[in-house]
Amino acid sequence: MNILIVDDDQGFRRVVKRLLEAERELSVVGEAGDGEEAVRLARELRSDVVLMDIAMPRLDGLEATRRIKAEQSDAKVIILTIHGEEGYRRAAGASGADAFLLKKTLLTELLPTIRGIAP
Q: Bridge partners of 79?
Protein backbone atom coordinates (compact mmCIF):
# COMPACT_ATOMS: atom_id res chain seq x y z
CA MET A 1 0.00 0.00 0.00
CA ASN A 2 1.47 3.34 -1.09
CA ILE A 3 1.27 6.21 1.40
CA LEU A 4 1.84 9.96 1.04
CA ILE A 5 2.61 11.88 4.26
CA VAL A 6 1.53 15.54 4.30
CA ASP A 7 2.55 17.81 7.18
CA ASP A 8 4.44 21.10 7.35
CA ASP A 9 6.54 19.73 10.24
CA GLN A 10 9.41 17.75 8.75
CA GLY A 11 10.23 16.16 12.12
CA PHE A 12 6.68 14.85 12.44
CA ARG A 13 6.82 13.45 8.90
CA ARG A 14 10.03 11.67 9.83
CA VAL A 15 8.39 10.04 12.88
CA VAL A 16 5.38 8.89 10.86
CA LYS A 17 7.61 7.55 8.11
CA ARG A 18 9.64 5.48 10.60
CA LEU A 19 6.47 4.05 12.08
CA LEU A 20 5.10 3.08 8.66
CA GLU A 21 8.37 1.68 7.31
CA ALA A 22 8.35 -0.92 10.09
CA GLU A 23 5.35 -2.53 8.35
CA ARG A 24 6.16 -4.69 5.32
CA GLU A 25 2.90 -4.05 3.47
CA LEU A 26 3.20 -0.25 3.73
CA SER A 27 5.41 1.93 1.56
CA VAL A 28 5.91 5.68 1.99
CA VAL A 29 6.11 6.93 -1.60
CA GLY A 30 6.30 10.65 -0.87
CA GLU A 31 6.17 13.54 1.55
CA ALA A 32 4.70 17.00 1.17
CA GLY A 33 5.08 20.09 3.34
CA ASP A 34 1.96 21.96 2.18
CA GLY A 35 -1.41 21.34 0.58
CA GLU A 36 -0.49 22.39 -2.95
CA GLU A 37 2.45 20.00 -2.99
CA ALA A 38 0.15 17.29 -1.58
CA VAL A 39 -2.34 17.64 -4.43
CA ARG A 40 0.43 17.52 -7.02
CA LEU A 41 2.17 14.51 -5.46
CA ALA A 42 -1.08 12.60 -4.91
CA ARG A 43 -1.79 13.03 -8.63
CA GLU A 44 1.71 12.02 -9.71
CA LEU A 45 2.23 9.14 -7.28
CA ARG A 46 -1.34 7.77 -7.27
CA SER A 47 -1.10 7.14 -3.54
CA ASP A 48 -3.51 4.67 -1.96
CA VAL A 49 -3.55 6.56 1.35
CA VAL A 50 -2.79 10.21 2.12
CA LEU A 51 -2.06 11.22 5.72
CA MET A 52 -3.09 14.88 5.84
CA ASP A 53 -2.51 17.61 8.41
CA ILE A 54 -5.09 20.41 8.55
CA ALA A 55 -3.09 23.57 9.27
CA MET A 56 -0.46 24.08 6.56
CA PRO A 57 0.90 26.90 4.43
CA ARG A 58 -0.21 27.72 0.87
CA LEU A 59 -3.26 25.42 0.96
CA ASP A 60 -4.82 23.92 4.07
CA GLY A 61 -5.37 20.20 4.45
CA LEU A 62 -9.15 20.39 4.13
CA GLU A 63 -9.02 22.06 0.72
CA ALA A 64 -6.17 19.76 -0.36
CA THR A 65 -8.36 16.80 0.65
CA ARG A 66 -11.28 18.13 -1.44
CA ARG A 67 -9.03 18.50 -4.47
CA ILE A 68 -7.43 15.07 -4.08
CA LYS A 69 -10.80 13.35 -3.66
CA ALA A 70 -12.20 15.23 -6.69
CA GLU A 71 -9.34 13.92 -8.85
CA GLN A 72 -8.96 10.47 -7.27
CA SER A 73 -12.13 9.33 -5.57
CA ASP A 74 -10.50 5.99 -4.73
CA ALA A 75 -7.67 7.60 -2.74
CA LYS A 76 -8.17 7.32 1.02
CA VAL A 77 -7.41 10.43 3.09
CA ILE A 78 -6.79 10.29 6.81
CA ILE A 79 -6.75 13.64 8.57
CA LEU A 80 -4.01 13.53 11.21
CA THR A 81 -4.13 16.68 13.36
CA ILE A 82 -3.81 18.26 16.79
CA HIS A 83 -7.22 19.93 16.32
CA GLY A 84 -9.73 17.69 18.08
CA GLU A 85 -12.72 20.02 18.23
CA GLU A 86 -15.96 18.71 16.74
CA GLY A 87 -15.99 21.48 14.13
CA TYR A 88 -12.75 20.18 12.67
CA ARG A 89 -14.16 16.64 12.56
CA ARG A 90 -17.24 17.84 10.67
CA ALA A 91 -15.13 19.92 8.29
CA ALA A 92 -12.88 16.92 7.61
CA GLY A 93 -15.91 14.78 6.81
CA ALA A 94 -17.34 17.47 4.55
CA SER A 95 -14.02 17.68 2.68
CA GLY A 96 -14.24 13.96 1.87
CA ALA A 97 -11.76 12.61 4.42
CA ASP A 98 -12.14 8.90 5.12
CA ALA A 99 -10.90 9.08 8.72
CA PHE A 100 -9.93 11.62 11.38
CA LEU A 101 -7.20 10.98 13.97
CA LEU A 102 -5.54 13.11 16.58
CA LYS A 103 -1.75 13.17 16.42
CA LYS A 104 -1.55 12.16 20.07
CA THR A 105 -3.12 8.79 19.11
CA LEU A 106 -0.58 8.16 16.35
CA LEU A 107 1.11 5.16 17.97
CA THR A 108 -2.08 3.33 18.88
CA GLU A 109 -4.56 4.23 16.14
CA LEU A 110 -2.74 5.01 12.90
CA LEU A 111 -1.92 1.48 11.71
CA PRO A 112 -5.36 0.02 12.56
CA THR A 113 -7.03 2.96 10.81
CA ILE A 114 -4.93 2.57 7.67
CA ARG A 115 -5.69 -1.13 7.53
CA GLY A 116 -9.37 -0.46 8.17
CA ILE A 117 -9.85 1.92 5.23
CA ALA A 118 -7.30 0.50 2.81
CA PRO A 119 -8.45 -0.67 -0.61
A: 52, 100
Confirm if 42 and 5 have CB atoms less than 8 A apart: no
> Model pTM?
0.95
Residue 65 lies in a domain: yes
Task: Give the containing element (helix H, strand E) for 12.
Answer: helix 10-21
Query: The domain containing residue 36 runs over which residues?
Result: 2-113
How many other CB atoms are there within 10 angstroms of residue 83's CB atom? 17
The per-residue pLDDT for range 19-65, each reduced to its tens digit, is 999 999 999 999 999 999 999 999 999 999 999 999 999 999 999 99
**CA–CA dist 103, 89 (Å, integer):** 13
Give a yes or no: residue 118 inside a domain: no
